[in-house]
């Protein structure tokens, strides 16, 4: 359900705005908003604090697998420009057939703070 992750971001941004937070695509070093890459969402509160939020989805059938891949690519125009909290929202999705089309059904969600998450990182470089 990776393609579902792009759609779920819109719902998350809308919910954050309803909660009174300023949420949108992150503002990169260039001053422009960027969609592709980490993080998905930049949240700014009324005190001027910034939170970077990334949304990830996974299939119910792979729930118990511990291996998850996150890609990092160096950029001349990075999206992370502030000292901020980094959060990950993880959505468990299942699929059903509706009117001949595949539909994603949210089953559960979790939120993680990334400051203590143990990860292995895979750096990508374009030739």
Task: Explain the overall architecture.
The structure is a single chain. The protein has one domain. 13% of the residues lie in helices and 38% in strands. A hairpin with a 2-residue loop joins strand 5 and strand 6. The longest helix is centred in the first third of the chain and has 17 residues.
Give the structure's gist in a few sentences.
The protein has 127 residues and is mostly beta strands.
In what order do the strands lie side by side in the largest sheet? 1-2-3-5-6
| Relative strand content | 35-45%
Q: What is the N-to-C order of secondary-structure elements (H for helix, E for strand)?
A: HEEEEEEE
Q: Sum up the overall morphology in one term.
A: globular
Work out the radius of gyration.
16 Å
Largest sheet: 5 strands, mixed
For this entry, give a set of tags:
127 residues; mainly beta; five-stranded mixed beta sheet; 1 helix; 13% helix
Give the topology.
Blueprint: H1 2-18, E1 22-24, E2 41-44, E3 50-59, E4 71-72, E5 85-98, E6 101-113, E7 122-123
Parallel strand pairs: 3-5, 4-7
Antiparallel strand pairs: 1-2, 2-3, 5-6
């Amino acid at each position: 359900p990776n393609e579902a992750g792009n759609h779920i971001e819109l719902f998350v941004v809308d919910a954050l705005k309803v909660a009174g937070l300023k949420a949108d695509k992150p503002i990169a070093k260039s001053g422009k908003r960027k969609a592709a890459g980490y993080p998905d969402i930049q949240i700014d509160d009324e005190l001027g604090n910034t939170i970077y939020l990334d949304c990830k989805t996974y299939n119910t059938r792979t729930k118990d697998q511990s291996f998850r891949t996150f890609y990092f690519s160096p950029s001349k125009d990075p999206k992370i420009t502030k000292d901020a909290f980094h959060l990950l929202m993880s959505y468990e999705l299942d699929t059903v057939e509706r009117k001949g089309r595949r539909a994603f059904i949210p089953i559960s969600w979790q939120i993680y703070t990334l400051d203590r998450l143990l990860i292995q990182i895979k750096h990508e470089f374009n030739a």
